[in-house]
Every structure is written in structure tokens, then in C-alpha cells.
Amino acid sequence: MFHRLAHRVHQQLIVIVLATLALVVVPAAPPACAAAKVGQAKRLFEKATQALQAGRLAEARDLLRRSLALHAHPATAFNLAVALRGTGEVTAAMTVLENLLAGRYGKLPASRRAEALRYREVTAKEVGKLDVHVRGAPKAAISIDGAPRATVTGRAQLHVDPGSHRVSASAEGMKPAQQTVQVGRGALATVRFALEPQVQRGTLIVEAASPQTSLEIVGVGRAMGRLRRELPPGRYTVRARGAHGERSRDVEVSAGRWTTVQMSAPGRSIFRSPWFWVIAGAVAAASVTTALVLATRGGSEPITDPVFPVTYTLRPAR
User: Fold this and answer.
1) pTM for this one?
2) In whole angstroms, what is the distance from residue 251 CA to residue 206 CA?
3) How confident is the model over 138-156, as pLDDT tens digits?
4) Count of structural domains, the chain
5) CA of 95: how far to CAs of 80, 91, 140, 190, 294, in Å?
């Protein structure tokens, strides 16, 4: 669709551009700095004219914007509107045409004014419209493609360029909502939002004495040493992991409140310590020695090892 429009625009440009070239007039004896700007603006205008005639609309648009920033002139503004329409930026083209007709780029001759009015009428027919409906909140802020556009009380109609747009609605105390909508050239598209109340969250903080402890809010996130999350009210499982195992517990998060949980991972088991086995070995040896002494003294009662589940039966000494 844009390619067909670009072709139509290209067919119109030869007449339009050539007609407007004569409008670029350098003021008589301007200051040196101003003259330099006007000269640069004219060179940019001429390059843009070549780009327009070749159908390079985006390039022409950028050159004309630069030229207009250096030196405001009706011919530059008109050709910029033509280029913007060709790239599908019809709302921007309408803004330029409105400013042109209001005299913001210099005096517009009567013949050129009639031409600008006709072109504005043609361009206006290609502007897309969004009919936005919002319920669930008395008023809502509407953004289009990330840019704030309007505050809506129930319903509003907004002008947009043809194409795909992300439309967002937000209101105090409500969940923001977003939709993607396709708008045809000169067409009307409807977007409806039903905003819902936003659930007030609570804050859950999980801390460990050691920064090396891995902390987790199951299904939410992980961190080392300290973990903080803003969460909807409800029950959550928190977990601490260390080199020797893990611990977990359930925590209740309330709306608008802070909940802090101190967690620690299991320490090293005494049964895994080499010192334990040294001590245990000594105890075992002492037990066997005691048993032998008792046996030597004529006892024959079974002795149970305090470490291993083994029962020793010693024969009476002879």
C-alpha cells in the first residue's frame, strides 16, 4: 500500500517540487552567519528535491527537516509535508501543513496557499482514527507506541498514522492494559479496555547470616545472602541451600506489609567430621580395652559398642 502511494506521490512531485523551487529566495545582504545558514538550507533543499524526484522519500524527509531547521521557508515546509505523506507519516504531514497555512514558515502566496489547502484535504483523508473506550476507572491515561497521547473519560477518538500500534491504558489503582491494533489508511479502528483493580503487594525479605548461602523463594527467584521481592499476598516457600544441605519453610505475605525471614543452611554434620572419627576411635579402643580387662577378670557379659551397632561377646580368660 505504501509503495503504491509512493508511486502516486512521485508522479505528483515533479510539478510540485519544480513549482516550489522558485520560492527559495535568499534575503538581500543578510548577515554573514545568516547567509551561511540560508545557503546551507538551500543546498539541502536541492538535494532533497533530487531525492523526491527519485522516489527516495525517507532521505528527502530527513534533508528537508534539516533545511527547515536552518531556514524556515514555505517551499521547504510544503515539500516536507509531501515526503512525510509518502512515508506514511500522515499525522506529521498534517501538522506541517497546518503550520504552513498559519504562516509559521513565512508568507505563503495566494496561489501556493490554494495548493496547500488542496493537499491538506487529500492528506486528511488518509489519517487513521482510533476510537478508544475505557471502563473500570473514571479516567485513564492513553499511550500509543509508548508515547502519552490523552487522558480519557470513558471514550475518545485519536488520530494516528496508518499501520500497527500498541495502545496502552492506565489509571491509579488499576492494572495497566495494552492492545495491538492495525489501522488502515483513512480507516477507523476501535479499542476497548476494561481495567481491573491492582492487587496491593507485600514485601518479602529473606536473609542469611552467611553471604555464601543460596536463598530462594520457590517459583519467584534466587539470590546469595539476601533476597527481596514485591509479591501478591499469599503463602510462599523459602529455601536456604549450603554445602551441607538445605532447609525450607512456608511464609505468609500480607498486602502492604513487610515480612522478613532469617534462614540458615544446615551446618556440617558431626558424623562427617574427621575429629569425630578420631574421638570415636579412641572411645571404641577404650571400650574394647575395658571389655578385655573385664574379661580378664572373669566376666563373660556381652559388651555393646557405643558407636557401631555390634555386640561383642568375650570369652572368660583362662
Assistant:
1) 0.59
2) 10
3) 999 999 999 999 999 999 9
4) 4
5) 11, 6, 26, 24, 110
